[in-house]
Amino acid sequence: MAKITASVFTSHVPAIGAAMDLGKTHEPYWQPLFKGYEYSKQWLKDNKPDVIFLVFNDHATAFSLDMIPTFAIGTAASYQPADEGWGPRPVPVVQGHPELAAHIAQSVIQQDFDLTIVNKMDVDHGLTVPLSLMCGEQDPVKGAWPCPVIPFAVNVVQYPVPSGQRCLNLGKAIRKAVESFDKDLNVQIWGTGGMSHQLQGPRAGLINKEFDAAFMDLMIQDPEAQAAVPHINYVREAGSEGIELVMWLIARGAMDDLGGGPAPKVKHRFYHVPASNTAVGHLILENQ
Ligand code: DHB
Ligand code: FE
């Protein structure tokens, strides 16, 4: 049986990817941020999964206003890093896990969540930056990510966006789906995006440290309470792009305690401002 062993939560700021790709991680601006991920890189080496189920948002790269799936699961064998305007990031191609992805699609759709099946998709910074932060620099040709990845894209760019409650419930369905796969696989689920940030309009540059700290507290202790927070509160308090945080609830919903098991162990908690226009938050939770 496959099993979700841990969840990882992290922001995905594109400038972090650029700092890594251009060798700037030791510059004074970036050094404190990357220091916060030293523990995480070692943790991932010590706790190498067989598959990462990676919840992220596409930024009008794979999808455009022509077609806006709310929840899209990648069932392909591989995914190319996307060209986001300055050429694709020099990172390895992302290998998929079509067999587990197809099983999760079957199970989650039968649990009444309408997923879009995606057999071809390029992946942008929403997916590659979390991988880079957790795995460190990788040679684009000779290197490889540590394991296959199932990309799961959530629409948080074009309204209407899914509610926190729906995201948490979807996570619960994903846990059931993984646990009904009849091969022994160690699966991690990653929830990415956030934290508070706003990239446009009169409030561009908004950061709300109090909101972010309270969000992380509830993510650990009471995700059901966080799931009840309506989307408009994220926008008002955490900025227009702060809504990316609802994706963390999908990964959190897939942890054992939301299916009646014990509370997860907090292995790592990190928060740093600034990174580009964004507050960076990061958590690692392990099922007991
Ligand atoms: C920034 C943050 C994001 O989440 C994003 O998708 C693009 C840019 C930023 O802080 O610059
Ligand atoms: Fe983003």
Question: Could you describe the 3D structure shown?
Answer:
- This protein is of the alpha/beta class and 288 residues long.
- It has a single domain, classed as Protocatechuate 4,5-dioxygenase, Chain B (3-Layer(aba) Sandwich), CATH 3.40.830.10.
- It contains 10 helices and 10 strands.
- The protein has helices at 14-21, 31-35, 38-46, 98-110, 125-135, 164-179, 209-221, 223-227, 231-238, 246-253; strands at residues 3-10, 51-56, 71-74, 78-79, 94-95, 116-118, 149-154, 186-192, 265-275, 278-286.
- The strands form 2 sheets. It has an 8-stranded mixed β-sheet, sandwiched between helices. A two-stranded antiparallel ribbon has the order 4-5.
- The protein is globular, with a radius of gyration of 17 Å.
- 46% of the residues are buried.
What would you say about this model in short?
The radius of gyration is 17 Å and the shape is globular. The chain is built from 10 helices and 10 strands.
Element layout with pairings:
Elements (H helix, E strand, L loop, with lengths): L2 E8 L3 H8 L9 H5 L2 H9 L4 E6 L14 E4 L3 E2 L14 E2 L2 H13 L5 E3 L6 H11 L13 E6 L9 H16 L6 E7 L16 H13 L1 H5 L3 H8 L7 H8 L11 E11 L2 E9 L2
Parallel strand pairs: 1-8, 2-7, 2-8, 3-6
Antiparallel strand pairs: 1-10, 3-7, 4-5, 9-10
The site of 3,4-dihydroxybenzoic acid (DHB) has 11 residues, from α1.
Which spans have pLDDT < 50 for at least 5 consecutive residues?
A: none
Number of strands: 10
Question: How many structural domains can be distinguished in the coordinates?
Answer: 1
Strand order of the largest sheet: 6-3-7-2-8-1-10-9
Question: Biggest sheet, open or closed, and with what strands and sense?
Answer: 8 strands, mixed
Structural classification: alpha/beta
CATH superfamily: LigB-like
Q: Helix share of residues?
A: 25-40%
* Amount of beta strand: 15-25%
**Terminal residue distance:** 17 Å
CATH architecture: 3-Layer(aba) Sandwich
Spell the H/E element sequence. Answer: EHHHEEEEHEHEHEHHHHEE
